[in-house]
Amino acid sequence: MAERLSQFLKSSNEKGKTVLVFAGSGHIVFGFGIPKRFYRRTPISYQTIVLKTWKEKIDEDFTFTETSSPVANFLWITRPNPPEKKRPRIGIILTKQKEDQKGLWIEKVIPDSPAEKAGLLSGDQLITVEGKKISKVKNIHDAVVQKGLGKEITFTIIREGAKKEIIVILPQNLGTGSN
C-alpha cells in the first residue's frame, strides 16, 4: 500500500492533489504500517485519524506505555450503534416458489409459536397480510411491526386451492413466540 501510494505521488498525476487513504486501524496505529513505510519512500508530511466506537474503557483496544507512539494524530470517537430493535415474530419459515406465482409459502411452522396456535400449516400460501399483497418477507415484517405486541394480524392464505383468512395473535412480549 505504501509503495503504490509513493509511486502515485512521485508521478505527474499527483501535481496539486491531496491524497486520502482509507485503511483499517491496524495498518496505522502507533505509526506502524502504511504511514511509516510511506514516509521512508516519500518524505511528505501526513496526518492519521483512527476511528473508534466509544467504550467505557476505550483504552482496552490499545496498549499505552510511556515510550509508545501516539495512536494517531487524531482519534475520532463515535457513539456505538443503538441496539437492534427487536420485533415480534409469528414463527414461520417462508419460501418463494416461482417468480410468476403470487405470495410466499410457509416452509415450516415453529412449534408453540403464534403461527402454530393460529392454525397456519406448512404448505400454506400467504397472499395478503392485513389486506395488502405479499410479494416479499419485508411485507410481513412491516405489518407485524406496525401492529405491535399483543395485537391480531390477519393473513389471507390459500390452502389446498381454497382461500381462507387466519388471524394470528402476536406475542404479548418478546420473550414468547420469538422464533
Descriptive labels:
six-stranded antiparallel β-sheet; two-stranded parallel sheet; alpha+beta; 179 residues; 2 domains; 8 strands; Pdz3 Domain; single chain; 4 helices
Please describe what this structure looks like.
With 179 residues, this protein is of the alpha+beta class. It has two domains: 2-78, no CATH class; 92-169, Roll (Pdz3 Domain), CATH 2.30.42.10. It has helices at residues 2-10, 34-41, 114-118, 137-147; strands at residues 49-53, 74-78, 92-95, 104-109, 125-129, 132-133, 152-159, 162-169. The strands form two sheets. Strands 3, 4, 5, 6, 7 and 8 form a six-stranded antiparallel sheet that branches. Strand 7 and strand 8 (162-169) form a beta hairpin. Helix 1 (2-10) packs parallel to helix 2. The longest helix has 11 residues, at 137-147. The model has no long low-confidence stretch (mean pLDDT 81).
